[in-house]
Amino acid sequence: MYSVLLVDDEKWIVRSLRAKADWESFGFRIAGEAYNGEDALRRLEEECPDVVLTDIRMPGISGLVLMARARERGIQAEFVVISGYSEFNYVKQALQLGAADYLLKPVDEKELADLLILLKSRLDQAKRTSGLLLASLLQNRLPEEAPLIRDILLRHRLPAQAAELSVICVLRNAREADACGEEAGAGLSLPEVPHLLLKTGRRSTGVLIDRGHLDSVLAALSRSEQRLDGVGVGVRVQSEERLEAAIQTAAWAASSYFLTGVKGGVHVYREPAAEPTELLLRLAHSFKSANSAAISDILNQLKALFREGHSDIRHAVQLYGLVQTLIMRGQAVEEEPQEYSVMEDYAPSYSTLLELFGDAGRMIAFCAKELQSALLLSAPATGAVSHAAMKGIVAYMEEYYADNLSLSSVAERFKLHPNYVSNLFQRELKSTFTKHLMKIRLDHACALLTETELSINAVAERAGYEDYFYFAKIFKKQFGVSPSHYRLNQGLSARL
Asked: What is the distance between the alpha carbons of residues 212 and 168, in angstroms, rounded to a whole number?
């Protein structure tokens, strides 16, 4: 909710403005009143309201002078000036000084309501833009951009000194995120304290606050009716350079439920008590030596390490990346530790792991199954579809052949790397994904041509081809005749 300061030298006008709108329903609250320019300027500096509605002509400091002095002092509030018809020249000056808008006396309720809707939209957009700009600045980390970072913080009534900030990451439940939308902070219940929202993922939001408000914000989130998978607090911010690290570690802390299996609660980031490097290295060696029992034992040790909270989400990403590397490179993988840096090529982001598996237990079970299957694949190929994952893929293609299938979409459906699926087709079927899908589709097309009187165009669509001419081209290439001649040869009349 945005704060508003009402300024007029006549108290009855201030009371009238209060009564002319249901301010809270428009997303605003009246933060204070001032009856002269001097008092208004003092309140502006102390309370930093988001919006100021001020009479344009007042004794002493006028609305125009108030605006000018506020701008000189770096105050970023949106000003709306109120004037009579005879004062329109003053309105022009106010607009030149950067006033957001103006209202004419007597203030009309509908005009005020329309103005509040417009202001709310502008302020929301400014917050979104500030969040995106701040995220971009933090990624670049150029020393000369530090003043711009401080300016963004001040604009949102946050401490200009990064050391006075705290960073929280809120990870919403997947269903809740789908219901509320992907906009940063959508549906979050935060107390009335200055803050800035940063979108850090599809369902995660970073919240920058004054460190002094940390406890009240965490308390509000713990009472929230919105289902939250986790709330994380990042490392202490010591400078602008550490702000990005605070945001990242807050996100990792919010993802702790993935490792422990327990959703909800507040997690303060701490450096991992144990590094799984040695276990990951042993896992690679066990795979190379085809030691199934050792693979199972090591994965169980990793699962226990995760559940006891001695690790963080990055190590789950490393494990998944290593498993994908081993599967892709097979038992030819080198034993030297530096060779496993390639695992980053196959490791998803931590947020992708959250979406794919939900928790580390499921991910490790999947890794165990894939590693054992990969060991079976190392045996001489028979040409039969003996691999469990391959059976599932072929069955899936048989059922959904008419959909817009691709190697990537099918691999994602089975939580496999596309290159790995491609290798499965080569090893198990001596074919490619594209050729096998075409075979399935054309077999079904042949059945439709001989068993139904559907038009050729309808047959193409049911077989998964939106383009009739492309269908006719590959059909003739495969069978030597057009679809219509194929039907005629089978004794049915061709219908286009």
From this structure: 13
Residue 219 — left, alpha, or beta (φ > 0 → left; ψ -120 to 50 → alpha)?
A: alpha
Do the Cβ atoms of 487 and 449 come closer than 8 Å? yes
Neighbouring residues of 102: CB distance < 8 A, sequence distance ≥ 6:
56, 80, 81, 82, 83, 91, 94, 95
Instruction: Read off the pLDDT of residues 33-68 as tens digits, 9 standing for 90 and up.
Output: 999 989 999 988 888 888 999 988 888 888 888 888
Strand 78-83 to 51-55 pairing: parallel
For residues 461 and 206, what is the distance between their CA atoms, to the nearest angstrom?
46
- For 472, phi then psi, to 5°, come to -60, -35
Ramachandran quadrant class, 77 (left: phi over 0; alpha: psi -120 to 50; beta: rest): beta
Containing H/E element for 219?
A: helix 214-222
Rg (CA), the chain: 32
Res 196 pLDDT > 90: no
- The angle at the Cα of 52, spanning 51 to 56, to the nearest 5 degrees, equals 150
Q: Are 267 and 253 in contact (CB under 8 A)?
A: yes
> pLDDT tens digit string along 224-258?
767 788 899 988 887 777 788 888 899 899 999 99
**What token pair was written down for 476?**
């003739």
- Nearest CA-CA partner of 346 in 330, 323, 366: 323
For residues 144, 145, 147 and 151, what is the CA-based torsion angle, rounded to 10 degrees? 170
Q: How far apart are CA 287 and CA 319, in angstroms?
A: 13
Question: How many whole angstroms separate alpha carbon 159 and alpha carbon 155?
Answer: 10
CA 18, chain centre distance (Å): 39
What is the β-pairing status of strands 228-233 and 165-172?
antiparallel
Strand partners, 172: 228
User: E-strand spans in 259-404?
Assistant: 266-268
Helices within 156-207 (DSSP H only):
174-180
Predicted model pTM: 0.57
Whole-number Cα distances in Å, 61 to 66, 86, 98, 114, 276: 6, 20, 18, 28, 66
